Automatic annotation (TrEMBL):
PROSITE patterns: RSMI (PS01296). It comes from Flavobacterium cucumis. The keyword Transferase applies. This is Ribosomal RNA small subunit methyltransferase I. GO terms for molecular function: rRNA (cytosine-2'-O-)-methyltransferase activity. HAMAP family: 16SrRNA_methyltr_I. It is found in: Cytoplasm. The gene is rsmI. Catalyzes the 2'-O-methylation of the ribose of cytidine 1402 (C1402) in 16S rRNA.
Amino acid sequence: MSKLYIVPTPIGNLEDMTFRAIKVLKEVDLILAEDTRTSGKLLKHFEIAAHMHSHHMHNEHKTVENLVKRLQAGETIALISDAGTPAISDPGFLLTRACVENGIAVECLPGATAFVPALVNSGLPNDKFVFEGFLPDKKGRQTRFLALQEEYRTMIFYVSPHKLNKTLAEFVQYFGADRPVSVSRELSKLHEETVRGTAEEVLKHFEAKPAKGEIVVVVGGKSLK
């Protein structure tokens, strides 16, 4: 029976791969990978021999129609990303939407997602939060910050290492120097680190010690007091 499986992969530590994810990847007709070279290492480690095709942000618009036809013909397909859960700041939404619109079964397996441990590690309120992902680089960036000034929920951002200090400085500018911030980097990896403090304190820390690796930033919302 045709089905699209959305399969999370480890964000760093291979031991976070689930038994169910391995089973699904071994059984499907095709695996769609963001980067076949990166995913090839993962599949080799778990002795998964399924066929693999490239599916990334630069070609997903062109490949969706053909993939839907293959699913309608009875194939089972698994979508993975380089790390974490597909469609969370990674390709996956377009194919999932197309499957839903065409009545094709979609099943997302539970698994690794970087922002969840970063949120829990932060010590900031997590009963209500908003996932912002990557901020716009230029156009719309200031507009987004101005809109978020009134956000009372905890905010979560993905930030590249070379943009971290700029982003922290913008937090100081738009949210205030005393706004609580938590920066988690290299989650689940050997050099995992979480730095907590005010926006100003965390900025000074990373100005003195530039960050490396994958980064998730969690910011406290505007106080309702």
